[in-house]
Amino acid sequence: MSLLPLRKEISRGAISIFAGIAVWEILARALLENELLIPPPSSVARTFWNLASSGQLNKHFAATATEFFYGFSAACMVGVLLGYLMGMHRWFDEIMDPWMAALYSIPVIALVPMIIIWFGIGIFSKIVVVFKITLVAIILNTAAGIKNLDPVWLELAQSMRLSSWQTTYKIRLPGALPFIITGMRLGVGRALLAVVVAELMASNAGLGYLLRESSETWDSPKLFVTVILLAVIGLTSFNLIKRFEQRMAPWRQSAEWSADS
Amino acid sequence: MAGPVLELRNLNKEIPRPGKEPFQIFNNLNLSVREGEFVSIVGPSGCGKTTMLRVVNGLMPHSGGEILLDGKAADQVSDQLLMGFVFQGASLLPWRTSLKNVLLGLEGRGNNGQEAEQIAKKFLDLVGLNGFENHYPHELSGGMQQRVNLARALAVNPRILLMDEPFAALDAQTRSFMQLELLRIWAETKKTVIFVTHMIAEAVLLSDRVIVFSHRPGTIKSEFDIPLPRPRDMDIRSDPQFLHLENQIWKQIEQEVKAAGGFAQL
Amino acid sequence: MTEEQRNLVSILLRVGSVLTGLLGWHYLAVAVIKDPGILVSPVEVVSKAYEMMVTTGELYPHLFASSIIFFYGFVLAVLVGVPLGFVMALSPLVRDYVNPWMTTLYTAPRIAFAPILLLWFGIGAGSKVAIVFLGCVFPVLINSYYGMRVVNREYVELARSYRLDRWALFGKILLPASVPFILAGVRLAIGRGLTGVAIAEWFGATEGLGYLIFFAGQTLNVPTLFVGVAVFAALGIIGFEIVRRVEKFATPWRGQTQGS
Hints:
The structure holds three protein chains of three kinds.
Chain A: H1 4-32, H2 41-53, H3 56-88, H4 90-105, H5 108-119, H6 123-147, H7 151-159, H8 164-201, H9 207-216, H10 220-248
Chain B: E1 6-15, E2 23-33, E3 38-42, H1 49-56, E4 64-69, E5 72-73, H2 74-77, E6 83-86, H3 98-108, H4 113-126, H5 142-155, E7 160-164, H6 172-189, E8 192-196, H7 200-206, E9 209-213, E10 220-225, H8 240-259
Parallel strand pairs in B: 3-8, 3-9, 6-7, 7-8
Antiparallel strand pairs in B: 1-2, 1-4, 4-5, 9-10
Chain C: H1 3-33, H2 42-55, H3 59-90, H4 92-107, H5 113-121, H6 125-149, H7 153-161, H8 166-202, H9 209-218, H10 222-250
C-alpha cells in the first residue's frame, strides 16, 4: 500500500484547517470588529492561556472527567454482565426488553431534569447520567454480540469439550467483544453530550458549567474556548476508542467513520 | 487384529416435527472403522453425512442405536477428547493467533503452559506452518487456515479425526495441494480418519474405503474398497483403476439422485 | 414446547415485567418516598396526561411548537446532508477539505454549539432550527457518503460493461444501492433531532416540549415532567417506526432491516 494518498489527505486537511482559521481571523477583525459575535482566534487563544494558567480550566476539566470516569466504568461492568445474561437467557431478555426499549427511546436530555431532582446538583447526578446512557448502549450491544456469535464457534467449543466457564471466557466474551466495544463507543459520544447538558442545567463545576457561565455573561472568547475544548475532547475520545477497537479486535476492519452514534 | 476403533450400530437420527411424522435424517447406520483406516463418505446433497459426523462427535444427540469407541459406548467416554473435528469453514477464532487457535483444545483439557505450546508448535510444523505461529486468521490464506484447522484437531491427539468437507471452500488448485498434504500428514500421524466430501475423485484419491450414502433418509447404499497402492500422488488420477472406481461410485450416486427426483431437485 | 406456547410465554414475561415494574413504581412512590416533589405514582402521571391531552389540551401548543422546529431542522438536514454526502463520496478533493471540519463538528458534544448558535441567530426559531439541523445532518451525511462508497464494485463494473453513461450509473446503480444507507442515517437522525429540539428549547424558549420538561423540572412538577418525557419517548418510537415502514416500502429487495 502506498502512503501517498494518505499524505495527500493529511496535507489537504491541514490546509483546510489553517485556511479556515485564517479566514476566521480576518473576518472577525476586519469585517465584524465585534468580539461578541465571533471573537478572532487570537483572542480565543489568549483567553485560553489565561484560563489555563489560572487553573480554572483544569478544575472544570477535572470535574467533568471524574464524573465521566466513574459513570462510564460502572456502566461497563454492569452493562456487560446484564447484556451477557440477556444474550444467554431468553426469559431474561424478555423481562428486560420493554424497559430497555423505553430507556433507549427517551432522549437523554429529557431525563436529565428528573435525575437532577433525584440525585441533586452535585457530582453524583452527573455520574448517574453518564451511567444510564452508557449502560443502555453497552447492554444492548453486548446482548446482540452474544446472540450473534457464529454457531460454528460454539460447536467448536463443544467438540473441544470446553467447560461452560471456558466457553464463556474463551469463546463468547471475545466473540462478542467487537459489539461490546461498539457499545462503549456509542456510549462515549452520548455520555459526553449528556454530562455537559447536566452540568449546564445545574452544577457548580465542569465544562458544562463553564459553558453556561460564559454564555450568561456574554463572554464570547471564553465561550469559544470551552466549545473548542469540548470539540477536542470529543475528537480525542473518538480516536482513542477507535484505536482501542483496532487493538482489541485487530481482525475487524473498523469503518472509516462510524455511521451510528 | 484388534477390534474396530469406531463402530456404529443401527444408528438413527430424526428430528421431531409438531403434528407430523418425525423427520428422518439417517436411518439404520452400521459401520465399523479399523485402526488407522481412511474412510470417506460420499452421497447426494442433504443425505445426512455431515449430520452423522456431528452425531458421532457428540455435537448432536442421536435418536437410537449405539456408537462404540474401542468397544465402549461413546457417551461413557465422551469426557475424554477422543475425536478431533475439522470443520467445513476453517472456524478459526479470529481473535486468536494460529498458535493460540491450536492451543484451544489443549486448554480445554487443562493443558496449559510450556508443554502445550510445544505440542501446538509441533503440529503447526507438521502442517507446514512453521513461522506463522503469531499470524491472525485474517492474515492467512484459505488453504493456510485449513492447515491450522487440521493442526488444531490433531493437537489433542484424537483417536479419530472427523473431517467435514474440509476443502470445500478452497479453489481447485489449493484443494489438490491440500489433498496431497493430507495424505502426507495422515501417513506421518497414522490417524484413523472419517472424511465427508461430495467430490468422488477426492474420496478415491485419499481413502482406503469409500462409503456411498443413499438419499434421505440416509443409509449406507454401498461400499468400495480402494486397493490403489500408496503412497499416492496426482498421477494416480489417470490410472485406469482409479477412473473405473470413480465411474462406478458416480453411477451409484446418480441412481440416488434420480430416485430423489432428479438433478433439478438438488 | 411448541411455537405457540413459546410465544405465549414470551408475551406473559414481557407483560409481567411491565406490570411488576409499574406496581413497584407505584409502591415506591406511595409507600416509601411519599413526596410528590420527587416521585409520583404512575396513576398520577396517567391522569396528568389525560388532563393535558383531553381536559385542558395544554399539551398541544407545546407539541406543535416542537414539531415545527423539528420538521424544518430535519428536512434541511436531509436536503443538505444527502447531496453533500454524495459529493464527498464522489470527489476525494472535496472530502479531504471538508473532512477535518466535519469530524470535529460531528464528534464534539453538540450542545456546546448551542450557545454560539444562539448568539448568532438570536433566541427565535432560527437558532432552534439550526440546533436541530446540526444534530440531524451528520448521520444523514455520513450514511449517504458511506452508502455511495461501499456500493459493490461488481455493480459498477456491470454498469461499465453495459456502457451505461455517468448519469445512468448514478441514477440506476449508485443511488438505489445507497438508499438503505441513507434511510438508516435518517433513522438515526430522528433520535438526534429530538434531542436537538430539547436542547434548543432549553435555551430561552417559552413553549415546546423541551420547555415543558425543563420548566416542570425547575418547579418540581413531577407529573408534568413524566408526561413530557413520555411524549418524547413516544415521538421517538413513532418516528423510528415511520422510517422503518418507509425502509420496507422503499427497499423491497432487502429482507429484514437491521437495527443498529
